[in-house]
Specification:
By secondary structure, the chain is α/β, with parallel strands linked by helices. It has two domains: about 20-245, Type I PLP-dependent aspartate aminotransferase-like (Major domain) (Aspartate Aminotransferase, domain 2), CATH 3.40.640.10; about 250-375, Alpha-Beta Complex (Aspartate Aminotransferase, domain 1), CATH 3.90.1150. The chain has twelve helices and 13 strands. The chain binds pyridoxal-5'-phosphate. Belongs to the DegT/DnrJ/EryC1 family.
Amino acid sequence: MSAAEQDQLPMIPAAKPIIGQEEREAVDRVMATGMVAQGPEVAAFESEFSAHLAGGLECVAVNSGTSGQHLGMLALGLGPGDEVIVPSFTFAATANSVAITGATPVFVDIDPETFCIDPGAIEAAITERTVGIQPVHLYGHPAEMDRIMELAQRRGLWVAEDAAQAHAATWKGQQVGTFGAFGMFSLYPTKNMTSGEGGMVSCRDAETARQVRLLRNQGMEVQYANEIAGFNNRMTDIHAAIGRVQLGKLDGWTAQRRENAARLDAGLAGIDGLATPVVREGAEHVYHQYTIRLLGAAGAERDRFATALREEHRVGCGVYYPTPVHRLPSFGLALELPVTEQIAAEVLSLPVHPSLSDDDLERIISAVRTVAGAGA
Ligand SMILES: *Cc1c(COP(=O)(O)O)cnc(C)c1O
């Protein structure tokens, strides 16, 4: 292909939120009522989300996934002196939600194949201050929840699930976000479904749900009868109306993500030094990301690979996440987590979103094969 032809190739974006006419009409419907703050749309969204994605557990909508995680932690009584075990290979919000309560996130290593917390590493990190575990269903692949729940029950710990990237993923037939004391789903635009910004907390028991509801709204259940000090982390009816439409489209999008992943798996099989995503037996992966590993790569080599995909082939891609959370300036820990550090240098996420065309998928496959030196 000539340079001129390449210049004309449209960029395939790494992620693409799909906002259609129905979402716009839903927003307009709310706007037309003149009542846009938290109201009936939020209540309807909570119960529909619960039925569809949370096994009927009580769901509480908030203004972001991070808020949901934070309020969930506070609802469980987390505070200074407590420790919560978390993976370091995740988005910073996982650890921030613990740290912001005054408690300490204790970072452990991951399984190199699923990129999720290593259940074997959790037990070794438990101290007399440990109160909970927060696994992350990273990229849409569920963490090993049966082993984690067994360990938590045996050691008297709670479990909070970071399901920000994993709407509709299941582990041994059970939906993620329904195993622990609470689960958090993000509704940020690039996630598998969106409300604009937003989050949903699925709560195992009525008291946790009540606490999250109180914390969301200044500690009030009854207007001006504040029971505790709380926040304003409410979702608006405008956002809930968008979320309700998106919830109705999620199954189709998830099926498309899986189909796209299967195409990429087939097209990228057998390339030396490149590993396609592993799906554990018992896992239903929802491919928030389709993440390959460049085996043994240093971060700089992986970054050159990413630059070649973007600049020479116009294939968008992303590195989630280049720096393990424990190494970020916000935590700055010298702790050695060898698997986490190796994986952070090797991973590269390719487009897998539901808007990809057949041509896009072919272009992604041939670009990766070319950059990897495997022939297009
Ligand atoms: C997106 C994300 C969050 C935070 O969700 P927001 O809605 O952006 O606040 C937390 N954890 C993980 C793993 C995420 O990907």
